[in-house]
């Protein structure tokens, strides 16, 4: 959790306005369903200001300099409770935060063979903004920028579906997150009625 999310395409101009960014909107063409190891545009802080660029979903720490295929850890999510002490996530937690916009994410509930797929959006119809960490390594395959999504214990909305939920940020938190400033405890679950869950049929339509 969260293992797939829906590509964000509608409100990049608004995101850029809030963050006072002037770069052109990223290329958001391609499959709507983003999976681990896919490339996806993320927003990070650089000395010259905030910037958006493509990154691989599933973080590879800069300490890994061999072939990418030899990095075997599952790192598309990072538990916010332990990120600060993790060998993989500790440095990005201290130095490299990112924002990852999305329209929705998907989760599954139920027993094996009878899984129900759910599409999760914000209940207020605003886009999601995931809190993420990024890193860059000079691997033998070339330089790789990658990211992970932070997760926390599920709140009232998500608990019937899964034990975890992604950490989402509101617009007034975006700059502080990117600038490594202190924020209220993000490990606390989202308040009730933050998320809306719609069941997905086997044909892919929503109930």
TrEMBL record:
Protein family membership: Belongs to the SOS response-associated peptidase family.
KW Lyase (keyword) present: yes
Organism phylogeny: Bacteria, Pseudomonadati, Pseudomonadota, Alphaproteobacteria, Caulobacterales
EC number: 3.4.-.-
GO biological process: protein-DNA covalent cross-linking repair; proteolysis
Entries under InterPro entries matching the protein: SRAP, SRAP-like
Source organism, top-level taxon: Bacteria
Protein name: Abasic site processing protein
Assigned keywords, A-Z: Covalent protein-DNA linkage, DNA damage, DNA-binding, Hydrolase, Lyase, Protease
PANTHER family from the UniProt entry: ABASIC SITE PROCESSING PROTEIN HMCES (PTHR13604:SF0), DC12-RELATED (PTHR13604)
A molecular-function term among this protein's GO annotations: lyase activity
């Amino acid at each position: 959790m969260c293992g797939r999310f829906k590509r964000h395409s509608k409100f990049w101009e608004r995101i850029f306005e809030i963050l006072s960014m002037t770069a052109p909107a990223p290329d958001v063409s391609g499959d709507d369903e983003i999976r681990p190891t896919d490339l996806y545009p993320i927003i990070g802080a650089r000395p010259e200001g905030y910037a958006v660029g493509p990154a691989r979903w599933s973080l590879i720490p800069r300490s890994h300099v061999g072939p990418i295929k030899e990095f075997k850890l599952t790192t598309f999510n990072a538990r916010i409770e332990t990120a600060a002490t993790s060998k993989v996530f500790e440095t990005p937690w201290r130095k490299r935060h990112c924002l990852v916009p999305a329209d929705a994410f998907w989760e599954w509930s139920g027993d094996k063979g009878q899984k129900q797929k759910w599409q999760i959006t914000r209940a207020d119809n605003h886009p999601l903004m995931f809190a993420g960490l990024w890193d860059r390594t000079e691997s033998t395959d070339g330089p790789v920028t990658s990211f992970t999504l932070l997760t926390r214990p599920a709140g009232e909305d998500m608990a019937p579906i899964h034990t975890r939920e992604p950490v989402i940020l509101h617009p007034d938190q975006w700059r502080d997150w990117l600038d490594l400033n202190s924020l209220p405890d993000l490990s606390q679950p989202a308040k009730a009625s933050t998320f809306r869950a719609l069941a997905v049929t086997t044909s892919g339509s929503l109930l």
